[in-house]
Design goal:
Layout: E1 4-9, H1 16-29, E2 34-38, H2 44-54, H3 63-87, E3 91-95, H4 98-108, H5 113-124, E4 131-136, H6 139-150, H7 162-178, E5 183-187, H8 192-202, H9 204-207
Parallel strand pairs: 1-3, 1-4, 2-3, 4-5
Helix pairs in contact: 1-8, 2-3, 3-4, 3-5, 4-5, 4-7
Bound molecules: thymidine-5'-phosphate.
Thymidine-5'-phosphate (TMP) binds near residues 100 and 104.
């Protein structure tokens, strides 16, 4: 039996990693085999690309090279980890996936959605999540949490200006509206147990 692939998306510091952990624990407790992974990264080769993408100066890559590197990391991640695990009947939870490239490089970076989707078709045969959980927080609350979490330091992409991150947030909302069958919007405000309960409720139909 084929497993399930769920991506968790959202802007910076909306609580994705905490929620992935809680969701993975709940799925394991229900007897499912679960793999938790992240992008960029998830395999040795893709983790090496992650370091290239997130470290270094703001102008280390232009937006085209950046999009290609994300797509290259994803191609390895899909081929070597995600697809085999799902085909073996497991549940894969990924902290970010294709929609991050669409929002960050495609919309906020200005490359356009078609360019990102073309790269994804080439790199990963257009492989898509069964469900995408979009965690949403008001921008000022996300900025406050990012300051607490990172203490004023952030990576090459997280450190971009507020207009860039506002464009990312708007792009995610548009994708969710365009694909209501794949996306679930999750209110990420409040404590982590409350957010987890919302997520668990939203994936209920997949558990049947
Ligand atoms: P993280 O901080 O959630 O681990 O993600 C790393 C950063 O990379 C974050 O700022 C979002 C960014 N990113 C992109 O710009 N495009 C992508 O395709 C992915 C997966 C992440």
């Amino acid at each position: 039996m084929r497993g399930r692939f769920i991506s968790i998306e959202g802007g910076e510091a909306v609580g994705k990693s905490t929620q992935i952990r809680l969701l993975a624990d709940a799925l394991k407790a229900s007897g499912r085999s679960v793999t938790v992974t992240r992008e960029p990264g998830g395999t040795d080769s893709a983790e090496a690309i992650r370091a290239l993408l997130l470290e270094g100066g703001a102008d280390r890559w232009n937006v085209r090279s950046e999009a290609l590197l994300f797509a290259a990391a994803r191609a390895d991640h899909v081929a070597r980890l995600i697809r085999p695990a799902v085909e073996a009947g497991g549940w894969v939870l990924s902290d970010r996936f294709l929609d991050s490239s669409r929002a960050y490089q495609g919309v906020a970076g200005g490359l356009g959605d078609d360019a990102i989707l073309d790269l994804h078709r080439f790199g990963s045969q257009g492989f898509l999540p069964d469900r995408t959980l979009l965690l949403e927080l008001p921008a000022d609350e996300a900025a406050r949490r990012a300051t607490v979490r990172d203490g004023g330091t952030s990576d090459r992409i997280g450190g971009r200006d507020a207009a860039y991150h506002a464009a990312v947030a708007q792009a995610f909302r548009t994708f969710a509206a365009d694909h209501p069958d794949r996306f679930c919007l999750i209110d990420a405000s409040g404590d982590s147990a409350a957010v987890h309960a919302r997520i668990w409720h939203s994936i209920g139909p997949m558990l049947a």
